[in-house]
Amino acid sequence: MEDTTSVAALASLRAEQPIVIYRPHMLRRAVETFARGFRGQVLYAVKTNPDEHVLKDLWAHGIRNFDAASLHEVAMVRGLFPDATIYFMHTVKSRHAIREAYHTYGVRHFSLDSADELEKILVETGGAADLGLHVRLAIPNTHAELALSDKFGAQAADAVQLLKAVRAVAAHTGVCFHVGSQCMHPDAYRTAIALAKKIVAQSGVTLDSFDVGGGFPSVYPGMTPPPMQSYFDAIHDATRDIIKAHGCQLLAEPGRALVAESGSTLVRVELRKGDYLYLNDGTYGSLFDAGTPKFIFPTRLLRENASSELRGFSFYGPTCDTLDFMKGPFYLPEDVREGDYFEIGQLGAYGRTMATRFNGFSIARNYVTVSDEPLMTMYPLPEKVLPLRTRVLGGGEKQRKVAGK
Ligand SMILES: *Cc1c(COP(=O)(O)O)cnc(C)c1O
Q: pLDDT tens digits, residue range 188-215?
């Protein structure tokens, strides 16, 4: 852990490598938003950001449940937190992973979407009597930026049969689904919950838990979701009757919404060609989502007396692959030039965790803590306590308007 500094001070170091920036206060604000607003258990989706300092801070803020999707994640969480409850929520696990998770790491909760996976879990746990089994339902991902429904989930008719089979052997029976990541409308949860309730009713099974999954959004230029509380309200309204009738727990598996704003990266411009900037970070580094899913991230140039006129740029990363391209547009002062440093925000989720060492470039393993406000936020403080500098340099509002028009 390094001392807290400011992003501007970091830029003045003129570092050769991209610098990973951490805002612990934003992690705290996100966790508090869920703790205050969501009436259920929060399972943190570890894949979103498995950095140890993030996991430890989540624990310090009261997160006790972790959604892991690989044996490595299971082992890591157990190594850090002997008392954590780990949910192994990948619906397709190797037999070895099931065995190790159950017998070595004390995992009791598993998700599944097929009868074959159920059989695997029963065999590899030795027919354990203390299993929590969560049937993953296929749900239309209509409001999400990143759909997940093709790969995972049982269709309604299969799900009904699977629920009955699970209830016969499990100590704890649940349903789960994922509305798709970066879900832009609370209606997606209403639709999914309605479908899940129908399937549960058809099965005649009594549930121990009802898991609404991840998908809670962050804010990006041109993608401003409604307030987080409107998602919680939609979920509470739609689940009220089933929670009461079954006496079951409400669960959620947020990833992005808890960690996105807590991370960013400071990058350098190595060359400018017109509206294209060549950077020292790219899609094989912390910017995968700027490439293939074409997310637009907020940016903030760190040079005094830069132009106040903004212009849209595309980025190239440092590798020799032409796929190392980020279309944008990313808005920066029109006179941005070689040697400039700028911050790219909202990279606490699906940022550094996706990085590779391809072509000899890699993103730093260390990080620097800052107390600056983030470039954009779902969790604003009251205006009067926002530091003035944020409003002058932030540019978030302006970028959002330009990109969203
Ligand atoms: C990725 C994932 C999550 C987290 O999704 P977000 O959209 O980041 O909230 C939760 N649950 C499962 C099963 C996932 O695969």
A: 999 999 999 999 999 999 999 999 999 9
Does 353 contact ligand 1 (Cβ within 6 A)? no
What's domain 2-22+263-393's architecture?
A: Beta Barrel (2.40)
CA distance 129 to 278: 57
pLDDT above 90 for 387: no
Closest CA to 69 of 109, 123, 41, 34: 109
Does the fold of domain 24-259 match that of domain 2-22+263-393? no
What would the two tokens of residue 219 be? 């804010």
* 93 Cα to the center of ligand 1, angstroms: 16
3-state helix, strand, coil in the chain (%, to 5): 35, 20, 40
**What pTM value is reported for the model?**
0.92
- Write down the CATH number for the domain with range 24-259: 3.20.20.10
Residue 241, C-beta contacts closer than 8 angstroms, at least 6 positions apart: 197
Q: Amino acid identity of 121?
A: I
Instruction: Tell me which of 211, 253, 350 to substitute to probe ligand 1's pocket, judged by most ligand atoms within 8 Å of the beta carbon.
Output: 253
Position 58 confidence tier, pLDDT thresholds 50, 70, 90: very high
The 10s digit of each residue's pLDDT in 75-111 is 999 999 999 999 999 999 999 999 999 999 999 999 9
Ligand 1 centroid vs 388 CA: distance in angstroms?
A: 35
Which of 67, 73, 150 for a ligand 1 pocket mutation test, highest count of atoms within 8 Å of Cβ?
A: 67
In tens, the pLDDT along 331-386 reads: 999 999 999 999 999 999 999 998 998 998 877 778 999 999 999 999 977 655 55
Domain parsing of the chain, residue ranges: 2-22+263-393, 24-259
Q: How many C-beta atoms lie closer than 10 Å to residue 383's C-beta?
A: 7
Residue 234 scores a pLDDT above 50: yes
48 pocket-lining for ligand 1 (C-beta < 6 Å): yes
Closest approach atom of ligand 1 to CA 350: 8
Task: Specify whether the CB–CB gap between 206 and 242 falls below 8 A.
Answer: no
Residue located nearest, by CA, to atom 3 of ligand 1:
214
